[in-house]
Each structure stands twice: as C-alpha cells, then as structure tokens.
Amino acid sequence: MSANSIGRAVCAAAAVAGLVTGLLTGPQAAAAPGPEEGTVAGLLADLQELYRKTEQATETYNATAEKLKKQRTQAKKLTRDLKKARTALHDSRAAAGRLARQQYQGDSELSPYLKLLLARDPRRALDQGHVVRRMAAERVETVGRLVDREKRTAALAARARKALDAQLALAERQKGQRDEVQERLRDVESMLAELTADELDALRRLEADSTADAQRDLLDSGALGGPPGKPAATRAPSKAGAEALRYAVKQIGKPYVWGAEGPKSFDCSGLTSRAWERAGREIPRTSQEQWAQLRRVPLDRLRPGDLVVYFPDATHVAIYLGGGKVVQAPRPGARVKVSPIAANPLLGAVRPDPGSRPDPSYRPPKLPAGAEEGADTGWGSESAPGDA
C-alpha cells in the first residue's frame, strides 16, 4: 500500500470520531445519508477504535526512535573510549616488554647488600642504589598502569558489547512498532473501502460541525479565560515562545507524515519539539513525554508558544497561536495548519519555559494565505507527492 493511500486511510479514520458521536448521540444522526444507521455506526465505531490504537502505536514508535537515537550516541562514545583504551594498553604492554628485557639483561645473582659490601666506593654504590630504587619504583608504576589499563579496557569492552546489544534490541523493537502501525493502517483502509461516497461526504460535514460545536462550547464555558463566546486576550509570550511559534507558522502547508520531525514533513510532536528546539530549548520528542515532563499551565493562562495536549492518553499535541487557535500537524493526509483549539478532545496544556518573562515587544506572526483551510483531521485533503 502506498504512503498516500495510508495517509488517506488514517485521515478518514480520524474523521470517524465526529461521525460516531453524531450517529450515536447527536441530533444530526437522522439526517446522515447511507444505509441502516446501526450498521454504519458499528463500522465507524470500529474505525474510531482502530484509529486511536494506530495513534498510540505511532507515539510508541516515536518514543522508541528517541531511545534508539540516544543509545546509538552512547554506543559510539563507548566505541571511541574503547579505541583509546586499547591504544593506551598497547603502549603499556610495550613499556612492560622493555622493562622485562632490561631486567633480563641486567640480571645478577648478587644481592644489593653483597654488591654494597664488595664495592670499592661504598658511597658511590649507595648513590647508585638510590637510582636503582627509583628505577624499581618506575617499574612498579609501569606494571601498575598495565594492570589498570587491562581492567579498564576489559570493562569498556563489556559495556560496549552491552550498549550494542541494547541498540540492536531497540532497533528490532522499533521495526515491530513500525509494522504494527502499518498493519493498523491497512486495516483502516480495508474497512473504509466499504463506505459509500455519500457516507464519506457525511464524514466531512459531521467533522466540521463537530469541531465548530466543540469550539463554541469551549468558548461559552469560559475555560479560555474570556467572556462567554470569546477567548481571553492573547498574552505576550516569552522570547523563546515567540520564536517557537514563528517556526511553527513557517511550516504551515507542509505535510503530516507519521514519525517525521522535519524539515520537509512533520507529525504532531515532531513539529512542537522541533519548534522549541529552534527556539533554543530541548523538550521531549513525544506528546506523551511533553505532557508528562513539562510544566502544566491552566487553559485560561495560555500564551503563544505553549503546547496544547489532546486525548486522555496524550497522543496529540499542538502549539498555541492565540485567540483560541493552535498551529498543528493534524493527521496523515493533512498539512500543518491553523485550527480551533477544540479540534480534538482537550487534555490540558504545558509550558516549556515556565520561568521566563513575557516579551513586551511581541508581535503575532503573519499567517500565510489559506492557513486555516482544510479539515482538522486531514479528511479530504491531499497528500504531497513523495509522502512516506
């Protein structure tokens, strides 16, 4: 199955969430075209669950990819250290070899005390004895270095083997997770093949209606700190937050590709982690780790650059633009765009730089034409040529 068909499959599955809700509980259920509602609802419920599992598998894949990157770095460092240790060990063995030859060539059966008694000049013999003792100490030190370096080299070799084994295990795990994502996407495509054109049109309408309703409910609740129906006035972000947001805005229009972190394509957490990296702050790679490790911030205290996290298991993330909107890489098949903050079920928000001060000189970035066009789940949009 091509990458484009995978993207279209996941896009349709993403829109399933809104349609399932509409068919099962919403007043629009009676107006939805298609065959018997129970049959469609059951199929769409299965697709929704399958999509959620696919999203979870994607984040797991991203987490393993990050661990593998760190493991490779560690393995390379250990390999370099081992090479240096082996060079030092070779030098110590050469020194020990010279010591052995000198000792063999200068060997005598006479003890140092007997040599002193037989010496014509005892004082000179004592002076020579001092030199001999110093040479003996150097020999002991040479042997000690050899032993220490042999131990260090053996320990480094064991650590390097262990690091390589861990790297191979992570690579194999990542391959299995990649296969799991692709298998779930094939299942999505197979199930979507049973939907009619009318049912697919219904997905588009219901997804748009669902997003609009969720955004209206959120604003009416006052959760964003403003009066009913409006978000709070946009606060000034920190300089780093403004820089992260500017980077994200510049990526608008680039395709979503699962597992991608730029520069030509992104997944959701790939976009947010890369944006903050460009702002000079390293944050976790995955949405789940961003939610777990970064400082939580109430929705009514949001400022541009903060990260908005979605779904109970924190499997999606976007960057706050201000005015109740976010910049996000929605789903495979979609492109980076501006969306209502309630385009997905909200979990909460985090701030990568909680101790930083607002920048009073902040000016919102200029959005490109069409920044808000396209469905927020990627439904109905086209993948870019060469998406993978």
Describe this structure in words.
The longest helix is centred in the middle third of the chain and has 71 residues, at 122-192. The chain contains 8 helices and 6 strands, in the order ααααααααββββββ. Strand 3 and strand 4 (325-328) form a beta hairpin. The model is unreliable at 1-38, 113-118 and 378-388 (pLDDT under 50). The protein is elongated and about 90 Å long. It has a 6-stranded antiparallel sheet. It has 388 residues and is of the alpha+beta class.
What is the helical fraction, as a range of percent? 55-70%
Query: Looking at the structure, what is the overall shape?
Result: elongated
Q: Taking all residues together, what is the mean pLDDT?
A: 75
Low-confidence residue ranges = 1-38, 113-118, 378-388
Backbone structural class: alpha+beta
